[in-house]
Amino acid sequence: MNQLLRFSGSVKRDPAIETWMKAHTGDLGVIAQHWFEVMRKCGDDVRELLHDGHPTACIADAAFGYVNAFKAHVNVGFFRGAEIADPEGLLEGTGKFMRHVKLRPDRDFNAFGSNEANRYRIHRHEKTRAGGVTTSVLLLPFE
User: Fold this and answer.
1) Does residue 98 lie in a domain region?
2) Tens digit of pLDDT for each residue in 7-26?
3) Long-range CB contacts (within 8 A, 24+) of 47-53
4) CATH of the domain at 95
5) Fewest C-beta in 10 Å: which of 10, 55, 81, 106?
6) Angle (nearest 5°) at CA 111 between 104 and 100
């Protein structure tokens, strides 16, 4: 069974996402824009679209991450987030696949944790399994 969430219609740069970004100003907009840019830089084959009203990043047609701004925080979400090692317990969610991190402007939005050792970055990882290459995007400590 294929457990990837796939979207047709993803493009290299979606004008609807630029409109979304312009509509989300202030501290929350800065956080959302920053983390979506990080997702965009995960590879030359990263594509995007607006899904359920928020910017979604894909590798080809398979979604891997999204950002969404709320009243007091931004979610940085991962469609296969349940597979991410999370020893610090930073990821939220109880679903079968998805997880997210809540980022607030009153904290350093580059730091998911409380100190320098807990800083994370998004990292693209590919590994070969029977039947082909599986691509995932993980959170890893900044080096």
Assistant:
1) yes
2) 889 999 999 999 999 999 99
3) 47/10, 47/11, 47/12, 48/10, 48/11, 48/12, 48/13, 48/14, 48/17, 49/7, 49/9, 49/10, 49/11, 49/14, 49/16, 49/17, 50/14, 50/16, 50/17, 50/20, 51/7, 53/20
4) 3.90.1150
5) 106
6) 60
Helix (H) / strand (E) containing 81: none
pTM of the model: 0.77
| Cα 52 from chain centroid (whole Å) | 15
Would 105 be classed as within a structural domain? yes
Residue 110 domain-assigned (yes or no)? yes
> Which residues span the domain enclosing 124?
15-141
